[in-house]
Design brief:
By secondary structure, the protein is of the alpha/beta class. It has a single domain (7-198), classed as Rossmann fold, CATH 3.40.50. The protein contains six helices and eight strands. The protein has helices at residues 28-39, 96-105, 122-135, 146-150, 152-158, 173-181, and strands at 7-12, 15-17, 43-48, 73-76, 89-92, 111-114, 141-143, 163-164. The strands form two sheets. It has a five-stranded parallel sheet with strand order 3-1-6-7-8, sandwiched between helices. It has a three-stranded antiparallel sheet with strand order 2-5-4. The protein starts with 6 loop residues before the first strand and ends in a 24-residue tail after the last helix.
Length: 205
């Protein structure tokens, strides 16, 4: 069994939609997994494709007093079947070239975790994983979250994720880390009791 601590890269993917706005959106599940991993000695990096305050952002995005504000958006092609709907479809979040640069500037991880939220944002998840695989073709990608749980078969077929998991990520964590990195993760406090879990690693954002 491997004893060296692995390096896990956690990624919050883009949104593809007709409209999106940041009403305090946080990938709490992913950030909770990051907090668990750090607590157990694992090295964790984080890239947020929805980062409204990315260092490469040329101007400060509008921020309301309570933290709400618009995401950067870039118009993209409409999904198949909606080409004639008369609406504009966009990628919400950082520019792809910024994401590529962030990936290349990050030390190569042993494993990548990608979360997913709304099922109809699936194409944003797909694009995110495709770019991860361009940079790290040999690094396993694990996809979890709401879309991965509710549309499990679709996520397995439609994304390049090496593993798609259902349900709470902490219940899969020990096996995932062992299977993909050989590291034996201490599974204490992973019994499913939410009160036993650490506070989400919001400092990574």
């Amino acid at each position: 069994m491997k004893t060296d601590s692995p390096h896990i890269l956690c990624i919050n993917p883009w949104i593809h939609d007709f409209a999106a706005y940041d009403f305090w959106a946080k990938p709490l599940g992913l950030l909770t997994l990051a907090a668990i991993l750090r607590e157990k000695g694992v090295t964790v990096s984080f890239i947020d494709c929805l980062d409204r305050f990315h260092p490469k952002e040329p101007k400060a995005m509008k921020v309301l007093w309570d933290g709400r504000g618009p995401f950067r958006k870039t118009e993209i092609d409409l999904p198949k079947g909606l080409e004639n709907c008369g609406k504009k479809f966009s990628r919400y979040g950082i520019k792809p070239q910024w994401f590529l640069a962030d990936l290349k500037e990050t030390k190569q991880p042993d494993l990548v975790f990608v979360t997913s939220l709304m099922t109809y944002w699936a194409s944003g998840v797909k694009e995110t994983i495709e770019i991860v695989k361009q940079v790290y073709p040999d690094v396993p990608v694990v996809l979890g979250g709401i879309y991965a749980s509710l549309c499990h078969d679709h996520a397995k077929k439609d994304t390049l994720a090496d593993l798609v998991i259902k349900g709470p990520g902490e219940s899969h964590l020990k096996k995932i880390i062992r299977d993909f990195t050989g590291f034996d993760l201490d599974d204490s406090n992973l019994s499913g009791d939410l009160d036993a879990l650490p506070f989400p690693a919001l400092d990574l954002q």
